[in-house]
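Posting for a labmate who doesn't have an account.
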Amino acid sequence: MSVRVTPENEQSSERLRHLRQGELALRWNISPRTLERWRWISRGPHYLKIGGRVVYRLVDVEAFEVEQRRGLR
């Protein structure tokens, strides 16, 4: 049995793979302005700007989190 892709479940699938600025700010408990500043100074995770809207791919966010890991090995 195959799953039929409809606009509703395609959008929910898209939402699982991308985070908006506010969602990422909540995830990391930081201000959305911090993410804006990081984009300005080329810091933080990679992002996409599509139609004037900024989104972060979940794979890029997770890769950035791994890069920030500190501590003993």
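Reply:
Got it, the structure tokens are right above this. The radius of gyration is 15 Å.
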